[in-house]
Design a protein that fits this description.
The chain has 257 residues and is of the alpha/beta class. The chain has a single domain (3-192, 223-246), classed as 3-Layer(aba) Sandwich (Rossmann fold). It has helices spanning 16-27, 39-49, 63-77, 104-131, 150-153, 159-178, 197-200, 204-212, 223-235, and strands spanning 7-11, 31-36, 53-57, 82-85, 96-97, 100-101, 141-146, 184-191, 242-246. Strands 3-2-1-4-7-8-9 form a 7-stranded parallel sheet, sandwiched between helices. Strands 5-6 form a two-stranded antiparallel ribbon. The protein is globular, with a radius of gyration of 18 Å.
Length: 257
């Protein structure tokens, strides 16, 4: 798909991986609609990107909000061809920890935002992609979802997080098959330890220790590297129904204490 002739919806687009991808798409001539709860960051980024960007505050897990946002994006751009799901939450909590048994709400919230939020955006945008005119390769649209290497290498305390990201991985091929006859592709990226605002809050010694776990290059991943992969997925029509680890060869082991 030609990015220069396309528009994209990016959830979690005001910071981190979503922001980096928004910048990369606009640099290639694309237009972007940023969905995020952080109104200040979203509006500042749109002001920087200019007419190629719009900001739509919203909660990806809210059915009506997302449907309303889709209508707003269509008013702004006419249609869109790319949907990038970056919105999500992290956090570790053991099933039985120092404070007792994990509240069920903690598990539900992670699933609701990461997994159901991703699916909610897909279900709300699928009809628009199906109605697009196919390009010269028969393609009408592409989804890029964001999981995590925790989907495969989940650590202690990540039962909720790993489950939410594993669900995203599991539905990748299923949806690719469902949308195949519509000329719509589905791909998922599994980032490793990325240098996002979330990790920026950690002490430098911990960040250095995390970086040294990566085989090569022994550093944190850069959001621009995620954005580069996302752009390649958009442009490479033969990538479909697959998940790609972006982790420098990192395989998280079991660190018994």
């Amino acid at each position: 798909m030609d990015i220069g002739n396309s528009a994209a919806i990016i959830t979690g687009g005001a910071s981190g991986l979503g922001e980096a991808t928004a910048r990369a798409l606009v640099a290639k001539g694309g237009r972007v609609a940023l969905i995020d709860l952080d109104r200040e960051r979203g509006e500042n980024l749109v002001a920087e990107l200019g007419d190629a960007a719009v900001f739509c505050p919203g909660d990806v897990s809210n059915e009506k909000e997302v449907e309303g946002i889709v209508d707003k994006v269509k008013e702004a751009f006419g249609t869109f061809q790319i949907v990038l799901n970056c919105a999500g939450v992290g956090g570790d909590i053991k099933v039985v920890g120092r404070d007792g048994v994990m509240p069920l709400e903690a598990f539900n919230r992670t699933i609701q935002i990461n997994l159901i939020g991703t699916f909610n955006v897909i279900r709300a945008t699928a009809s628009t992609l199906m109605d697009n005119n196919p390009d010269d390769k028969g393609e009408r649209g592409v989804y890029i979802n964001t999981a995590s290497i925790a989907a495969q290498d989940g650590q202690v305390g990540q039962a909720a997080y790993s489950s939410s990201k594993g669900g995203i991985v599991s539905m990748t091929l299923t949806l690719a098959r469902e949308f195949a006859n519509n000329g719509i592709r589905i791909m998922t990226i599994l980032p490793g330890i990325m240098d996002t605002p979330l990790l920026a809050q950690l002490p430098e010694k911990i960040r250095e220790r995390l970086a040294l776990q990566v085989p090569f290059p022994p550093r944190l991943g850069e959001p621009s590297e995620f954005a580069s992969l996302a752009c390649h997925i958009v442009e490479n029509t033969y990538l479909n129904g697959e998940h790609i680890r972006l982790d420098g060869g990192l395989r998280m082991g079991f660190g018994r204490k």
